[in-house]
Amino acid sequence: MIEVNNLVKRYGHLTALNHFGLTVREGEIFGLLGPNGSGKTTAIHCMLSLLRYDKGDIRLFGEPMTPDNYAIKRRLGMIPQNVAVFNELTVQENIDYFCSLYIPKKAERKAYVEEAIAFAGLEDFRKFLPKKLSGGLLRRLNIACGIAHKPSLIFMDEPTVAVDPQSRNNILEGIRRLNAQGATIVYTTHYMEEAEQICTRIMIMDKGQGIATGTKEELKSMIQTGEKLSIECDGLSKELLAQLSQLPDVLQTEYDGQIFRAQLQSGSHTLVTILDILRKEGLSLGRIFTEPPTLNDVFLEITGKDLRD
Hints:
By secondary structure, the chain is α/β, with parallel strands linked by helices.
């Protein structure tokens, strides 16, 4: 569906995309993740021919993507990060307007608009102006406007930002339905749990380049961070905590007086060793928990923990 090769985009002395490459297969929900300023939105705008770029090649549906390739553009949908609707138009009028850009015949368009309203759960709000809608409803309207013409390739740029959990869940379920109906989706978000929940493959970007690509399981296998261990225990001394911290494959430890926590290295089998040490010291142990690494762990290890602008 998408092939991007050797893409370069500069803003003066700033290189926003540095020989960026990307492949998205038909039927995927492809997650495009990265810190602020990593180039995600710039890459999407180049793929949509909304930005000119300095070098590279972009092909959508196997054809070169150019600003005047309207045959391709009719097959695309875009849900921008910032809600982009007309405040003077009602919910139904907004959806009808954006759909009319692709489907000019009003009689044919009517069914598309009704499907989009039902898809976004906006039946009771069709005559509302945007200013009367909650944040979650506005996001759902934004999505309805972008998918009303039934695009086969949809770009979603942080569609769930600043919405409540119920609205987020509704939007994520809608994305799955779109995908089940045949749409390929490129999805950007700062919520790692969302990407882990819905994306079939993920690319992590930084400094204008794709630095890691794969399924969530493949990405987790690339990092040093392994399981997180939590053990309920009383009376763990500073000396014993220091001893445990020095064990091979133990990356980090902490103790709050009740629970001992350790971050283990990937592939570690140190749990048994830790339990043996604690028992030999006569400590009474309670519940023991282990958590596998998350996509958030992958993201932070690959891109670093420094704050970004």
